[in-house]
Amino acid sequence: MLATHAHLSSLKSVFVFRISSLLSPRSDSLLQRTKLQYFSSLRSSDRKFANMAGTNAAAGKSSPEHVAGEWYSVPELRLRDHRFTVPLDYSLDRSASPKISVFAREVVSVGKEEESLPYLLYLQGGPGFECPRPTESSGWIHKACEEFRVVLMDQAGFWKFPRGTGLSTPLTASSMLQMKSAEDLADYLKHFRADNIVNDAEFVRLRIDPDAKPWTVLGQSYGGFCAVTYLSFAPQGLKQVLLTGGTPPLGNGCTADSVYKACFEQIICQNEKYYKRFPQDIEIVHEIVNHLAQSEGGRVLLPSGGILSPKGLQTLGLSGLGSSAGFERLHYMFERVWDPVIIPGARKRISYYFLNAVEKWLDFETNPLYAIMHESIYCQGASSRWSAQRTVAENEDKFDAIRAAKEGRPVLFMGEMIFPWMFDEIHALRPFKDAAHLLAEKKDWPPLYSVVALNNNKVPVAAAVYYEDLYVNFKVAMETASQIAGIRLWITNEYMHSGLRDGGGQVFDHLMGMLNGKKPLF
């Protein structure tokens, strides 16, 4: 088991050279231009957040912009719901911008005097999923509620965003159909990235806390990306930051290409480990791929009306390869791939059980925002141009499922990648194909990070960096950490990307111990 905690200064010489191959020969000049551009953006952003200040006279109480519900209980926890009416577009005058709703749930331990506790904001991963719905005091929430009033802001779940999910004016497969055109939808969705999630967080902080004090932020996965945006543009709202598998790439332009290329090695490694654990699945997956390829149109229908093709089968790696028990869940799903032959001579068929499990596994039916917005989270002043599609094409010999099955090689599953063909094959995504293409070609994405601000960071930061993380590449994470002044790192392979879910109490305690002096620097 690898487990290390260290101050970043002691690690720079060890790790920075490893990721040099991920950067283009122009990276130094790009970084310099990035710093200047971000500095300019930071100034305008500071003005933006400054304009929001001074509006907390009714903080903690209901107002037209903030409706606080009554306290209620689940075992060992007391909860209160908050609904905030926020601008869709913070760059416009408050009265001119359309409004959306952001939902947050306040959580405290039974027996704690909430007024005496500081606030902790939890930003979950994704994009496109809602915050947790606590049913009891357990995991990291149990630990956090011993010290904090926890605020769960709808945003991203396993995949990635607060606004537009859960009870926060949710962008669902049905609600997005209200848009009159693909252009209207793309123009609307451009406001649902980390920059506006931070705007929402500041809006909430100034109203939920009567004293509007800086709060602690815990960012898991994409929630960590948002927390680094927070450090870049609104550090005045932060007391301290905890990151769990959430250190984003900082490069200018669109970093998706470098992220995908860096992740290929780990994707292949996870595939190898999966088939070593379940060698019988090599032949089972071959059978499925051959069956799909030989079916009419090279595919079979899914229960929703979508289709399953060999390349669609490969996307099961999205959650099967990167989380704890993912291997086991994937294997057990393959156990029931075929219908039993009840009548001798009947045609072999993939079972309804398996096809239904595939759709539930991917979860795009209920969380389409993740698929539509995923690559945009890597874009600053450049388009993604379907980065996953382009980078996989460069490795087609490794990831061609039909060819692998014919040659008797293991069929490789994909990692966290979204492809344009998904908007043809997945039923719930089909109406949004044109909008997704518009977003993939959009170039004028605003900055998400300020390297200058991060280099001069004064907010205490502790980060769990998972050595075998499938989604947030270790080398990229280390390069980013080298740019955040004062960050403390806990590098471990004890957990996968889902460490906060799997060992939440231990992970939370470890990171807090690094900030409060209970964990030594070396």
From TrEMBL:
Record domain AB hydrolase-1: where: 120-281
InterPro entries referenced in this protein's UniProt entry, alphabetically: AB_hydrolase_1 (IPR000073), AB_hydrolase_fold (IPR029058), Peptidase_S33 (IPR002410), Serine_prot/Carboxylest_S33 (IPR051601)
Database matches in Pfam families: Abhydrolase_1
Hydrolase as UniProt keyword: yes
Keywords: Hydrolase
Family: Belongs to the peptidase S33 family.
Protein name: AB hydrolase-1 domain-containing protein
Record organism: Xanthoceras sorbifolium
